[in-house]
């Protein structure tokens, strides 16, 4: 059964998290995905847990920063248990810290796996969440994402499908290639060229240029468990939340 979720990063610019959770519950969401700034320590995680329970929501997945995982592994495990996380993904690496060749990305995958090992030992699914820069070719048809997953064989992928497209690659090809290692997917849409400039060119799910039906069919053939709606910079998160869950519900009932 695929769980429909909402990446809370989408609403980071729209007031307190308590109001966001109320909004999502009223739109029929049952699950959300957290990001590191929401639970910087156990006290913040406990407050978030209380807000989730108040609104009948769960947080099965979350993003956790690599530095936090490496610097405070015990606290990360404690927060994951408190929030009852099922999966944790490292979401990013700054441009000036990125490897430049195959060996470097493989070593980076090994590093990410090591950082997530305490969470894996605690029973969580662990993995990497991509942007577009992991789509760069390293030679021989190998991308940086391939190298990360090769270097970290215990890592699952949270495949951000729109970023794959932005990186010039075919998301269906990646879904097929890593069908047994897809733990979650980000459902994000791309506005037509020149539109939604104030939203960094992103669109609400179903309102952009991505052809979702064939991608949905490919997702359904993988090990995926979570479909996560995301918009990196909406100018109206109420509109984004309501439009996106309507589209996703239609896709997964079709």
TrEMBL record:
<dbReference type="InterPro" id="IPR013022">
    <property type="entry name" value="Xyl_isomerase-like_TIM-brl"/>
</dbReference>
<dbReference type="InterPro" id="IPR050312">
    <property type="entry name" value="IolE/XylAMocC-like"/>
</dbReference>
<protein>
    <submittedName>
        <fullName>Sugar phosphate isomerase/epimerase</fullName>
    </submittedName>
</protein>
<dbReference type="Pfam" id="PF01261">
    <property type="entry name" value="AP_endonuc_2"/>
</dbReference>
<feature type="domain" description="Xylose isomerase-like TIM barrel">
    <location>
        <begin position="21"/>
        <end position="237"/>
    </location>
</feature>
<dbReference type="GO" id="GO:0016853">
    <property type="term" value="F:isomerase activity"/>
</dbReference>
<keyword id="KW-0413">Isomerase</keyword>
<dbReference type="InterPro" id="IPR036237">
    <property type="entry name" value="Xyl_isomerase-like_sf"/>
</dbReference>
